[in-house]
Amino acid sequence: MLKDDYNISITGRQLYEDEDRGEITLSTTGSYTQRDGARFIAYKEYDDENPRVCHTAVLKVEPGKVTMIRQGSSTRLILEEGRRHLCLYDTGFGSLTVGVFTSRLSQALTPQGGSLDIAYTLDIDSNFSSSNQLTVTVSPRGKRRPQP
Predict the structure, then answer these.
(1) Structural domain boundaries in the chain
(2) pLDDT tens-digit profile of 67-113?
(3) What's the number of CA atoms in the CB half-sphere (13 Å) around residue 122?
(4) What is the pTM of this model?
(5) Strand 65-70 with 38-46, pairing
(6) Which of 6, 42, 66, 137 could form a disulfide with 32 if both were Cys (CB 3.0 to 4.6 A apart)?
(7) 20-33 per-position pLDDT tens digit
(8) How many helices (H) does the chain have, and how many strands (E)?
(9) Topology of domain 6-139, per CATH?
(10) Which positions ≥6 away from 41 have C-beta within 8 Å?
C-alpha cells in the first residue's frame, strides 16, 4: 500500500532541435522513504485514456544515479551522470530500447524531502531523439490540526 504522506511535483521539459516542445507538470502525492543507502520516491500515474487504470512509478535515487521504474510495465530508465545506458521504455503498444545519456544529475535530498534536477538526452537506434530536463521536488504533506 502506497502512503500518500508527501507532496511530489515533477516537471519535464523536452527540447528537439533547439525547439521547445513544451513543459509537462505533474503534482501528486506519494511516498518518500530511505532503505539501504537509497531514497525512493513513489507515486501513482493514471492512464489518460482510462483514469481507473494506474501504475506505481518509483524513482530510486542513489549517489550519482536515478533509476525510474514503472510497475506493471517493462519501463526501466537508468539516469547516471556522465554515462549512457540502453533502457527499456514501454510505449503502451510495445517496448522500445532507447539510449539515455545523463549530462547532469544534481540532488538536494534530505530525510525531510528536497529536489532532483536531471538533464538527459534520448536516442533511438543511436539516432538523437530529444534533450530533456526533469525536476522533481518532494515535501512532507501538512499535518491537519485537530479541531477543538
Answers:
(1) 6-139
(2) 999 888 888 999 999 999 999 888 778 888 999 999 999 999 999 99
(3) 18
(4) 0.86
(5) unpaired
(6) 6
(7) 678 899 999 999 99
(8) 0, 10
(9) Lipocalin (2.40.128)
(10) 6, 8, 30, 31, 32, 58, 59, 61, 136, 138
